[in-house]
Write a structure and sequence with these properties.
Layout lengths: L3 E4 L6 H14 L10 E2 L2 H11 L11 H10 L13 H17 L3 E4 L1
Antiparallel strand pairs: 1-2, 1-3
Helix pairs in contact: 1-4, 2-4, 3-4
């Protein structure tokens, strides 16, 4: 088992399925967990960590208030500054965090 992140209580939410389709259209692929309300790619974890400056190996997870704050404070690179092969990881991580903030749900991490 590798690194994983899950939205609390939102694993099959229609918003995640919709945003996964958008990421796939932009990047050509998407993290396999995004449509179910999660991330399962370690590269997505790295992108999430880099954008938020917060540890993504957090046993306590992030409550919904922290998710909203981090979504507002995150610094995401522009795609022109990201190698094409990393677009999916960056866009999946960004979409996951922003969707969790929109839904006011926390995030828990596993590994």
């Amino acid at each position: 088992m590798g690194w994983d992140a899950f939205a609390n209580n939102r694993r099959d939410c229609t918003e995640f399925r919709a945003i996964a389709r958008i990421v796939r259209a932009k990047a050509g692929t998407v993290d396999g967990g995004l449509a179910k309300g999660g991330l399962d790619c370690r590269d997505c974890g790295r992108a999430l960590h880099k954008a938020t400056g917060r540890q993504v190996y957090d046993e306590d997870g992030w409550d919904w208030r922290k998710v909203i704050r981090l979504a507002n404070e995150a610094t995401w690179p522009t795609l022109c500054d990201v190698p094409r092969e990393d677009w999916s990881s960056v866009l999946s991580a960004k979409a996951f965090l922003l969707t969790c903030a929109k839904l006011r749900t926390g995030i828990w991490f596993g590994w």
